[in-house]
Amino acid sequence: MLTTEALRDFALNVVGVDKLGVANIERFDAAPADMNPRNIMPRARSVVVFLKRILRGTCRGVDEGTHWSSYHVYSYAGLSQMLGAAKDRLVRFIEQHGYDATPLSAIATSREFGPAAPPAAPGLPPREVVVQHRIAGALAGLGEIGWSKVFLTREFGPRQRLAIILTDAELEPDPIETGVLCDRCKRCVAECPAGAIDPERSVAIEVEGHRIEWSDIDLGKCKLTHFGLNKLSGPFFARRFPGVRLAVGEQEVTWLEAWDLGWAMFPTMPALNALAASPVAACGARGCIIGCMKHLEEVGRVSNTFRTRPVFSEQAPWRLDEEPGHRFADHKGFVWDPEAPAPPPPPPRDDEGWY
């Protein structure tokens, strides 16, 4: 017989994940149809959620303005691949005990594309069913959702990515915890370069007497910044388009508009085009993860501590200039090249203004 503790022991000590929790399927009874795990696996009895930590050092280059690829390659796209490999081993382990299991995709943004398509036939569930990973993590007792909507754990604060497996094995659920980590300091609000985290408006659900609440995020501004198109924090965009004034905080863009704009722009910027081989995280999560991490380390709310630099950083977040980096006088509407030699002075003009 498969137990929660046997699965957790295998996951942590053999597979190498950092934490695993279980929610009973009834905790999802109030989920919308397009977010309900029963519409993916109708006979599911348990929702297994596990995580791997974001390596703290991969955030260093983003915070210091020196190196972007470590965060993206190792702690975003790369971490999703590692979670996929771990899901394969855990599903095999569950099947070896005689139970079915369904691994869920790490792509959880289908909802933002717009209304789900209708069912393929009457009586069938809707298409594009996507279980919200952070809510699942909270319902599986792994941690809580912070004000920025980023998932927080006692061990790593905001530094992790999640994965989900559905199974018809009836496993012992873990208790839900809320109100332990996020103290509503709103540092994420202040340090998000997009201004995407609302300081007051929120979204909330209630499950088994627990209120799970987070900020009503402006997903369009978030996605523009996530894709590196925010001039305040996007050095690749700022260098390639110095004459563009793109103040993300003033935009009224939808998530899908931001998505489409990003994929249209990536080929123009070699660094982002290379990163776009997998889902792009060019923002480096400077407010929602790095800002939150600094605060939780300062107040001593995470157990994963470090001998050197026990607090990640005390420096204020750096910002670039949203204003154009050149003016009409520099290029006359043609090509601007700051490396080009200055043109020779024009010859003297005659009285009629002709050379």
Model description:
- The protein has helices spanning 4-15, 60-64, 69-75, 77-96, 133-139, 187-191, 219-226, 235-240, 255-265, 270-275, 286-298, 328-331, and strands spanning 19-24, 46-53, 101-103, 144-145, 151-152, 160-167, 202-207, 210-215.
- The chain has 355 residues and is of the alpha+beta class.
- The protein has twelve helices and eight strands.
Brief digest:
Helices cover 29% and strands 12% of the residues. With 355 residues, the chain is of the alpha+beta class. The strands form three sheets. Strands 1-2-6-3 form a four-stranded antiparallel sheet, with helices on both faces.
What strand order characterises the main sheet?
1-2-6-3
**Poorly predicted runs of 5 or more residues:** none
Question: Tally the helices: what do you get?
Answer: 12
> Percent range for helical residues?
25-40%
What is the end-to-end distance? 94 Å
Largest sheet features: 4 strands, antiparallel
The SSE order reads HEEHHHEHEEEHEEHHHHHH
Per-chain topology:
Layout: H1 4-15, E1 19-24, E2 46-53, H2 60-64, H3 69-75, H4 77-96, E3 101-103, H5 133-139, E4 144-145, E5 151-152, E6 160-167, H6 187-191, E7 202-207, E8 210-215, H7 219-226, H8 235-240, H9 255-265, H10 270-275, H11 286-298, H12 328-331
Antiparallel strand pairs: 1-2, 2-6, 3-6, 4-5, 7-8
Helix pairs in contact: 1-4, 3-4, 7-9
